[in-house]
Amino acid sequence: MTLLCVPLVARTVEEMVADAAAAAAAGGDLVEIRLDFIQGFRPREHLPLLLRGCPLPALVTYRPSWEGGQYEGDDTTRFETLRLAMELGVDYVDIELKVADKFMSFISGNKPEKCKLIVSSHNYEYTPSCEDLANLVARIQAIGADIVKVATTAKDIVDVSRMFQVMVHCQVPMIGLVMSEKGLMSRVLAPKFGGYLTFGILNAAKTSASGQPTVEELLNIYHIRHIGPDTKVLGLIANPVKQSKSPILHNKCLQSVGYNAVYLPLLGDNLASFLETYSSPDFSGFSCSLPFKVDAVKCCDEHDPVAKSIGAINTIIRRPDGKLVGYNTDYIGAISAIEDGIGGPRSKDAAISPLAGRLIVVAGAGGAGKAIAYGAKEKGARVVVANRTYEKAASLANAIGGQALRLADLETFRPEEGMILANATSLGMYPNTDGTPISKKALSFYDMVFDAVYAPKVTRLLREGEECGVKVVSGVEMFIRQAIGQFEHFTGGIEAPESLMREIAAKYT
Fold first, then answer.
1. Cα torsion for 54, 149, 107, 81, to the nearest 10°?
2. Which residues form the Quinate/shikimate 5-dehydrogenase/glutamyl-tRNA reductase domain (predicted)?
3. Of 41, 201, 273, 297, most Cβ neighbours within 10 A?
4. H or E stretch covering 178
5. Residues annotated as catalytic (active site), given as ranges
């Protein structure tokens, strides 16, 4: 079982002792005591205080500045401290590869049997090739490490795959982690690829390396105690991706139905490269968001007819034969949310949508804009597409028999009463929450405003719409409805727990 290690980076011994208790209460398996973070550290006075009352097995690290740590002194003092930790019964000691030979000579092989030696290498610039990583692991093994630790940095999410390949072939216990937000997958999937341990922090203020998730996230969102070699990998590939609530929603729903999969936020730069790199059947399904929804069409081998006509995909499923199939669940999610938002008397003929005959202005001509425009046209609406780049607006408008405008033209566009505005741009999305596709003054010409952005739940566009007395529909509705379709694709037809989805969305958006 992959252990969950909580790094302790407090500046005082007293705070570190308190954090060790908090780590145990949170569900950690061991703590990493980072001695280099303690101000005024006095080994013979402080080490016994740290170790004797520690409620969890302890890993002692005294990281020098030349390996990314805080310690500025000489190696002899450091080595003496680590040897003292061994004598006091510590469970693990971490020493850097660069000085591991010197340390082994220093202790003259007198390492307590209980104590495991971790020999570590950190690369804060990039992730080497598979061959170079394998050679590095062999060097660490040859020194006599009980546990190999290699930490690199992801410049691209595909870099993580090289660490996975090396981990599964390592002949001794290995900690293999890739730092930065693009390397998060390495930390969550450590149990799938045989990692000896992974790190989870107590909170965002107590990080010891970039890209570390919290203990709470690892245990209660990603459910790492249940991740194993057979666990399917799902996720949202987007850029940015940090703001998304999809990992919370999908993971809790997957857990509720007992489906063996984990859903990850995947910060990508190139969709085709990602799909080609993570081509194993275990990487079985992905949500696609900005800016990859249109690119996804070219990446898929087959397409759902609706997705193909829209020209944008938000869901990719990898079949057992390796073929990639693209779907668009944005279409149903957005249109049904808008229809319900219009409300009012319904036609006796259920086939007639409340959108029929209405004028809808779609701001944005990307993947979400295409889904809304095609969906609205199919429901009998008259569609206007407004986009910052006029040529893109014209291309989409021509495809559906609509009208094209520049986004700036919306300030004076008011051909009739009762119009509907649908924002399908990223304007207003976290972290740029001040953005809006249209001024408050121009909003007053609409009857209803829908915003596909759901983080934050109440965008500037929706807030100003309400202030103008316009009916508003949050992107949370589209988020839930498109997620229902995705969940059923991901799980091979298991019915999505809609009530749970709504409960989660209400809590986290």
1. -40
2. 354-414
3. 201
4. strand 174-179
5. 122, 149, 293, 330
